[in-house]
Amino acid sequence: MTQLCSICPRGCGVDRAGGQFGFCAVPDTPVVARAAPHFGEEPCISGTRGSGAVFFSGCNLRCVFCQNRTISRGEHGKEITVAQLRDIFLRLRDEGVHNINLVTPTHFAPVVTESVIKANDGGIGVPFVWNSSGYETPEFFRNSAGIFDVFLPDFKYVSSEISRKYSVAGDYSEVALNVLKAMREAQPDDIFENGLMKKGMIVRHLVLPGCTDDSLDVLDEIKKNLGKSQLISIMSQYTPFGKNLPDELYRTVTREEYEKVTSYALLIGLKHGYFQEGSAAKESFIPDFDS
Length: 291
Description:
Elements: E1 31-38, H1 43-46, E2 51-56, H2 69-72, E3 78-79, H3 82-94, E4 100-103, H4 109-121, E5 128-132, H5 138-142, E6 150-153, H6 160-167, H7 172-186, E7 191-193, E8 196-206, H8 212-226, E9 231-235, H9 255-267, E10 273-275
Parallel strand pairs: 2-4, 4-5, 5-6, 6-8, 8-9, 9-10
Antiparallel strand pairs: 1-2, 1-3, 7-8
Helix pairs in contact: 3-4, 7-8, 8-9
C-alpha cells in the first residue's frame, strides 16, 4: 500500500518511498550530511566533550537566511538505513559525546524514532536531543513521550506576514505553539546532572534584523503558553548568508536590538536560560558539511 507523506504540517501527500519528493526535497529514508561532536550548542548541551550532532538533509521550511543551505535543500548528504543510523549513534557515544543531537529530523521522524528506540533498547546510555524548527505536528510528540530526552525547538516568529515572507509558512506561529506545548507535556521536567541537561526543553529564538517587535511577541507567547520558568535561549548570531536575501536582512543584529529583546525577557520574568555575549554573528558558527 502506498504511504503518502503527512509527517509534517505541510501534508504534501507525495509517495516519498516511491521516489517522489515533497517540500523537504528528500526521500523517506534518512539522509545524513554530517555526524560529529559539536561544541556550538548551549553549554548544558555541548558540555566539555561536545554534543553528538547528526545533521539531517532536507527541511520542511525554506528560510531565506538559512545558514545550512547546502543541506536544507536536500543537495548534500548520504542516504542510510535505520541500522546505519543506530551505528552512527553508537560511534558518537563511543567518542565520548554527552548526548546524541538530532538536528532537523522532522521529515524523517518515523525512521529516526525507530533508530532511537533500537539504540535505547541496546543501552546506549546517553540522552537524545530533538533539535528542530518547531514546525511539526504536535501529535507526534504526544505519541513519543519517553523516547526523546531533551527538546531543543525554535520558536522563530509570531507574525504570519514575517513567517510567510522568510520561511514560506504563514501558519508557523500557531503550529509551533501547539508543538511546544506538546513537547512540554511529553517532557515536563528539566533535569540536570553536573551542569548538563539530561531531560527537559529549551526554547530557542534567533533575533533577526528589524524584527525586534516580533521577538517581543515571541517572548510574550512563551510566557503565556509555557510559563515564566520555561528555559529560553535568545540568540544574536544571525549572519547574512546567501545571495537572495531581502534587503533588510543584509546586516547583522545591532547590540541595541539584541539588548531590547533580552531586557524585555527579564522584564516579563523569563529569567531562566541563555543569552549570548559579544558578537556571535560569525561564519564559524556554520558547520562544515564536507567532514
